[in-house]
Design brief:
This protein has 194 residues and is an alpha+beta fold. Helix content is 24%, strand content 25%. Residues 1-5 and 17-25 have low confidence and may be disordered.
Length: 194
Amino acid sequence: MVLKIKNISVGAFVLALIMLLSACGLAAKEETANVSDYSLYFGLGGKHDKAYLIKNDIFPEAIPSTANVEKFQYCYYNSFDPNYVCYLVYTCDDDEYKAERERLSKIRSSDKYLIYGATGFNYPVCAVHADSYNGYVYALSDEKNKRFIYVEISFCNYFCDVDYTKIISKEFLPIGFDAMQGNATRKRFEEKNK
């Protein structure tokens, strides 16, 4: 009986602590799918300008004037460590497509960018920053449709707290990529640090 009371007390204390931390703003979440919010997050002075875990000079500073945005999502979640899942897909005219391809070609990409079990991509990679601790930022292109796909999945401690598979279409994710809790990269880290 005494043991059960202690377990209940400890459980109640932990639950109260989690609720207190959340109430104090230590657990934060910000999300939008409204493309008119793009400049609030990206580009010079945007909330995401200096807040990222991986350098993000891949996403455009502004969406091109001829762009037809198919998808935009910005998700920031921080329970104790920041997580970002950002996603932009648009088509544009020939001139803006060529200009953006040129801009992306000048970005110094990571040499080894197949991380977290990734074996490749379904579209050509224009630019990519990959970090085995923090994840990905990349741009893909679909020349036939004059379409660009921009993705950021960044996190701490070798796993993402956000289920990016519910936000980003599978065809735009790296093939074989797994950065969810319990992924192989995280397991290797845990084994090394036992």
